[in-house]
Specification:
The structure is a homodimer of 252-residue chains.
Chain A (H helix, E strand, L loop, with lengths): L10 E8 L1 H4 L7 H11 L2 E9 L3 H14 L2 E5 L10 H9 L3 E3 L1 H10 L7 H5 L2 E3 L3 E3 L8 E4 L2 E4 L3 H12 L9 E7 L3 H14 L4 E9 L2 E10 L2 H23 L1
Parallel strand pairs in A: 1-2, 1-3, 3-8
Antiparallel strand pairs in A: 4-5, 6-7, 7-8, 9-11, 10-11
Helix pairs in contact in A: 3-4, 8-9
Chain lengths: 252, 252
């Protein structure tokens, strides 16, 4: 259900990335950035992300900490067919429920694999915690699942993205956060004082300052964010005027 | 100090990425992957990573959870000159120590900026918690710092990388984890059962299985990791033999 009644209540989320390969540096996590952008676009605030190894105790602890704190928790990784895929078991343990071969998941897999191919390893992918709803996987068929407010998805980005599209149909979304970005070719230290004053004047607009360095030198991006379009426009105009004054001062 | 006396004791670390811009999806975090690879290469196990917003309570809670649990904690982001740069204050609060303009940091900044440029905003970058050591910043000069086992670094990747090189000189490192990678053009479900048996036979070697999809179809990478070179070689030979048997079975 997309619940516009609750549009003014912030909807929050966390991401939990599960996998030794991310922590060893062998694989770069692409999922957190993708999910972050996706949730922002539908009005859900990603409030925290964690990466933990393929160790059951660590997964259970992170699932329980994050599901209690945020509206939703999205996990990626660890639901494949090999011995190091322990996410489903860990999520069942976190909720204190049983886990076994799920007839719905088994049916999906039987439709895909011939009997001879339904190895014990592959059958692991049909293990779903009691009480969970399946999340369809249009890419490679073995499903993810939702248990309570926890959405358990694959780690392979193309599969995770397809599962997230499925999951999104069931999410309560908030009012979309509007944002404006202004840039100035100065290090942020130059504009930090007037910017802090403007933040004091607009406490209801989040004003962030993000410095970077490229071959032309310092570039500072000022990002303003608010769910209130009118206040966002006012604050943006004020910051733009400050930057313009700053530029003309410098040109003198 | 590089402490080879402790080579057999695992040295662990966590990364804490601080910044609203990462959680909103506006900026993709490049630092965690870089640090992960770097630490693996010097024999330190990255055991967890977290991303939190620019909110003091969240930063304090994460710093205290992670510094207690691991040998080292590396933070990135939030030490610039603007109002949303609150990492130094949060780390001081986490340790329960004071924070003020640090004479050493001020000297570095005076050498760089003319008096007129030393705005209140820039002076924020000289605020260092009591008892901390500075981490030199050869790129833009404003230093990071180390307090206890916590290394506080910039968020801009080029600056963070230079600070990490500085920080690494003081780290205790472990015996480097060796690794071998084998590949097979099969989905991992096909080899999951024999692979689980091999993991049982080599409990002292971590065997991970990482599936991916490309335009040629499924590709599974088996990654073996151990600090014991002889056991790693044995396990690698055993997995290679299994994969070869599997390939010849399929060819029949």
């Amino acid at each position: 259900m997309s619940d516009s009644d609750n549009a003014d209540t912030a909807v929050t989320a966390a991401v939990l990335v599960i996998g030794d390969e991310i922590l060893s540096g062998r694989t770069r996590d692409q999922n957190t950035g993708y999910i972050a952008e996706y949730l922002t676009a539908i009005g859900i605030d990603l409030a925290e992300a964690r990466i933990v190894p393929d160790r059951k105790d660590d997964i259970v602890a992170a699932v329980n900490a994050l599901r209690a704190r945020y509206t939703y928790l999205f996990t990626t990784g660890g639901i494949g067919p090999t011995h190091d895929d322990i996410t489903a078991d860990a999520v069942a343990a976190a909720f204190g429920v049983g886990i076994d071969i799920d007839p719905r998941a088994l049916a999906v897999m039987k439709a895909r694999y011939r009997d001879v191919e339904l190895t014990a390893a592959r059958l692991r992918m049909a293990r779903i915690p009691d009480g969970a709803e399946l999340i369809a996987n249009p890419v490679s068929h073995s499903p993810g699942f939702r248990l309570g407010n926890v959405y358990v998805m694959a780690g392979i980005p193309s599969i995770m993205q397809a599962m997230l599209d499925e999951a999104a149909k069931t999410l309560r979304t908030g009012r979309v956060m509007g944002s404006e970005t202004l840039e100035i070719r100065q290090p942020e230290g130059a504009i930090g004082d007037p910017l802090a004053e403007l933040q004091d004047n607009f406490p209801d607009v989040m004003i962030g300052s993000y410095p970077s360095l490229d071959d032309k030198g310092f570039l500072t991006r000022i990002v303003l964010r608010s769910r209130d379009a009118a206040r966002l426009a006012e604050a943006t105009a004020a910051v733009r005027a400050m930057l313009a004054r700053f530029e003309s001062d410098k040109a003198e």
